[in-house]
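ENTRY TYPE: paired fold submission
RECORD: A
CONTENT: sequence, then structure tokens
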Amino acid sequence: NHEICTRAGEGYLRFLHPVLATDGAPPACTDFLAPYTVTVAGQAFVVIDTSAAEDTCPAKGCDGAPYAAQLAALAPPPGSWLLTHRPVWGIKQTGMLNQALQEAVGATGGRLPAGIALVLSGHMHILEALSFADGGPPQLIVGMGGTALEHAVDRKLDGLTVGGRAVAHGFTRHRFGFVRMEPEPDGWRGTVVSAGGHPLADCTLRAGSLRCR
């Protein structure tokens, strides 16, 4: 969740930049970091910097080319999670996002790189889980862990289309909390937990499917 340079970005990079400091000085602040991969216990997490990706294209259009180039250069191992600040696919009470990232995916054949099993994002201050009819990577948005919540999304998500993808199963929660993900032999199980530590929902992630209830 890269912070932009005009909003304490230098401090963010000092503590969380993937490149080590040189002679005690952190790398210069930049608003567009190169992708990197972190592997923990065999699970790969591919991080791309989408902080500046436009949710809605202005009249002159979005600039998805930088993100398309980064996606095209990725070669993630099977089962990787793509971590982004802004979701590639998100549904609000009125409107959809992120148009710049959807343009980038469209420029790379309409699909994320092979090997990506889940897109995990923040930015929207709610919980939202989207599984798609095409069997491609689901989108999980976990944005209810910090600042004020956004307006609740209470419309039916199943059957809607976002970025050219039809939603097979959609789920939202409008509560502060977090999600705990635990590996299973055939995928992952997620528990949505309230700020008080109480379970709010259960999720299962399998190949091409994310279902919460």
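RECORD: B
CONTENT: sequence, then structure tokens
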Amino acid sequence: EKVYNEALGYAKNFMDSVRQGKPVDYREAVPMVDGVIASVFRNERAGATLCKLRRFDEYTYTHCINVSVLAVILGKHLRLSKKALRMLGIAGLFHDVGKARIPEDILNKPGRLSDREFKVMQGHTLEGFKIMQEQKGLHQEILRAVLQHHERYDGRGYPQGLKGPDIGKFTRIVSVVDVYDALTSKRVYKDALAPTRALGMMYQWRLSDFYPNSVEHFIKCMGVYPVGSFVKLSDGSHGIICDDNPAYLLRPRVKVILDAQMRQVPIRVVDLATAQHEGQALRIEECLNPADYRIDLSRYFFA
């Protein structure tokens, strides 16, 4: 959590400096990205959980951190080198830096953007590329991720309408985690989707929007039930997925927080690989969206 909060503070300062036209240096972020990588190698699930600690009024900043963390998690799953993970983490951290040059009334508009406003918003990719191009010694794959993270495999994306192999290697990772975090985030104009619902939608789009096997790798990496998912168990109780079980993908560990009537209960962790209820294996009955029940799960993550 300390690493996450430090990175969040850095993202705010960096974006504010860009907005004010002050000089910036991406190299100041390297120690923080290294901290993210170290945290992921220590406890990958804790890193994924931290991505749920988003503040509604700080989306632009928390989104940048979450994309960086999730990109590193996926990159580790793909067995990238530590050097590549560092570059990937930097790409994720700065992928939306161009939004610092988008008017705030468009960036934070509480409703659907007009065609003109959407065109302005799309400009954040090119603006971000210009900003990062001024940085000395930045790897080309990082620049490509900043410019291309809204490109789509079938050519329907922007700003260049690139297709297939023309899309950068880091971009293929950043674009997947960018979409996932956006779908699972609450905004002024929409509620957050449950992680399983978001992954299901992305799986439907996998052939058109994303590089082959990218979504499949991400689902394997996050688990069938991603950490932080809100679920109802077969005994009627409700809880949060707190860890997966590689040997039994459908039986993760669950932190039970509410009973069948949605009343708070003493928190306990149950391992669905072994837990029983009335002589039957305790199982997940359904995934729920906490927003539908006005439940703030973040208060329970580290309880």
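NOTES ON RECORD B: The CA atoms of residues 234 and 280 lie 9 Å apart. Residues 230-299 form one domain.
STATUS: closed
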